[in-house]
Design goal:
The chain has 2 helices and no strands. With 47 residues, the chain is mainly α. The protein has one domain. The longest helix has 21 residues, at 2-22. The model has no long low-confidence stretch (mean pLDDT 91).
């Protein structure tokens, strides 16, 4: 009974995670990364 409930909960959580990750683009991740890096003072080295 408990194992079945845990299995169902994990399956639902996995489906929700996959759905949410499917809505995230690489461009959005890159923009967020750049914003965080800039706020923390990171800069790309210049040649």
């Amino acid at each position: 009974m408990v194992n079945a409930a845990l299995f169902d909960a994990m399956r639902e959580a996995e489906a929700l995670l996959i759905e949410r990750l499917g809505a995230v683009t690489l461009a959005e991740l890159a923009e967020q990364f750049d914003d965080i890096a800039t706020r923390k003072g990171y800069q790309l080295p210049t040649p």
